[in-house]
Amino acid sequence: ADFGVAGFEVTIWRSPDSGVTWVKEHEGTANDFVLDLEIVADGQDQTMVASYDGFTAPQEGGVLRSVDGGLSWAPALAGLPGFLRMPRVCVPRGGPQDLVLSGWLSFSTGGLFRSADGGGGSTLAIW
Predict the structure, then answer these.
(1) pLDDT in tens, 1-20
(2) DSSP string for 74-121
């Protein structure tokens, strides 16, 4: 997230030249922040997902998805609850589009979700 003078929005930065320079590709809602970013292991390195946490209703935590190598980002919330705090995403061994997401569903209950299509559709479900 940007803090201070730049604001408090969730941000995703991308380097087109192996880290020499950085470009802000996504600036989202204030008081949200990215926790994890994963590249979907489909051999093309174009689809990426980023878990985010925050306090902005109606979606308090979720996933952002890019299908163009991180140039643009959009919410990928199908199958996720409106309250999902501290979500963490990882790419497990398995299918090339598999993702696993964990997070708090309440302040005393956790949840585990799985996507078989790189977070692209309504296939996220409690696992």
Answers:
(1) 666 566 677 889 999 999 99
(2) EE--TT--SB-EEEEEE--SSSTT-EEEEEESSSS-EEEEEESSTT-S
Residues forming a β-bridge with 4:
none
Closest CA to 10 of 50, 48, 44, 68: 50
Measured CA to CA, the distance from residue 24 to residue 74 in angstroms comes to 14
Q: What is the pTM of this model?
A: 0.85
Q: Which among 115, 97, 4 is positioned nearest to 43, based on CA atoms?
A: 97
Q: Could you give the CA distance from residue 26 to residue 20 in angstroms, rounded to a whole number?
A: 19
